[in-house]
Amino acid sequence: MLAKSPHAALTRLFDEVGTVDCVGVEERVAKYTTRSIKKVSKVKGLRLATSMVDLTTLEGKDTPGKVASLCQKAMHPHPGLEAPQVAAVCVYPSMVRHARKALGSDTAVRIASVATAFPSGQTSLRTRLAEVKAAVADGADEIDMVINRGAFLAGDFAVVQDEIAAVVEACGDCALKVILEVSELETYDNIRAASFLAMRVMREGDFIKTSTGKTSLNATLGNNQVMLEAIRDFYLDTGIAIGMKPAGGIRTAKQSLHFLTAVKETLGDAWLTNERYRFGASSLLNDLLRQLEKEKTGAYQAPYYFSEAAESY
User: Is the pTM of this model over 0.85?
Assistant: First the structure.
């Protein structure tokens, strides 16, 4: 019996979902960086980006105290500055209960937890599902899972989808963010195809996400654009609105405005909310606060003026 050809399986999937005009994507995203944003719109954009941050710590040296500090930063980004709360704190499953204790129940800040053997995903499905269920039981509002990249690249698409569907079920009412790990998918065509595979077994209000932040290549305007266009095309086909989370490598307020420009011009205002768009970029927060302070006072503050945020990705 002949082994299934990954190339043949990918070709069939590309025929279903379409391929990417790489030159067109790069030309389009280059234009986002040239947009002129006036003062009032800039302040609105900075505040919006702040409200979309998933403030993150994903290190082996994480402690309950560090997580509690992160939660305080999430709820009160900077005293004296009218900055919104961030969207969520993102922690390992073992830290979820500590985040829940620190946040309490009277806050809109959500608790997101990476799961499914983040960042590699290289454990049994039973173990990965147990990790999801444990995080949910401890109080997580959202789960960030990694797809089985090996199965995708081998052309075993049913395995990829079945595993995502199993995690959806394990999440219950929690939102799910499916991490594609774009650097390991290697091409825009693969990123688009993987986006469709995931979205076909996801629910309204779930997200697709670029990266774990643990590889050499993370979120770029290019791979963000490919995924936004996949979301748009899927929505036009099905009416199901899937969210988007670029993660890793977005460190400046200026970059965040470029990404928000991409969202507005590709998906429209309905996606300009933290219910449909997030930044997995904790080091971004302080630069957003610094820019908001500058717009308020006319002067830049030194970086140490703002309390430290975790900078895992």
Answer: yes
Q: What mean pLDDT is predicted for residues 303-312? A: 54
**Residue of 54, 144, 189, 206 marked catalytic:** 144
On whether residue 163 sits in a domain, the answer given is yes
| Domain, as residue range, for 290 | 22-305
Q: Which CATH number covers residue 118? A: 3.20.20.70
Question: What pLDDT shows up at residue 313?
Answer: 37
Nearest Cα to Cα of residue 136 among 106, 168, 161? 168
Average pLDDT over residues 103-129: 93
Indicate which residue of 73, 133, 177, 245 is catalytic: 245
Q: What is the mean pLDDT of residues 43-52?
A: 96
> Tokens 């899972």 identify what position?
145
With respect to residue 155, please indicate whether it lies within any of the assigned structural domains. Answer: yes
- Spatial separation of the C-alpha atoms in residues 74 and 184, rounded to whole Å: 31
On the question of a cis peptide bond just before residue 119, with omega within 30 degrees of 0, the verdict is yes
Within a domain: residue 6?
Answer: no
Tell me how many domains the chain contains: 1
Sign of CA dihedral 194, 127, 171, 65: negative
81 has a pLDDT exceeding 70: yes
Residue found under tokens 């079920």: 169
Secondary structure, 3-state, 178-215: EECCHHHHCCHHHHHHHHHHHHCCCCCCCEEECCCCCC
- Is 245 one of the catalytic residues? yes
269 belongs to the catalytic site: no
pLDDT score at 177:
98
Element (H, E) at 275: none
Does 1 score more than 60 pLDDT? no
In a domain, 313, yes or no: no
3-state SS class at 87: coil
Q: Is the pLDDT of residue 60 over 80?
A: yes
- Return the ∠ at Cα 295 (arms to 289 and 301), rounded to 5°: 55
Tell me, yes or no, if 38 is annotated catalytic: no
Under DSSP, is residue 53 helix (H, G, I), strand (E, B) or coil?
strand
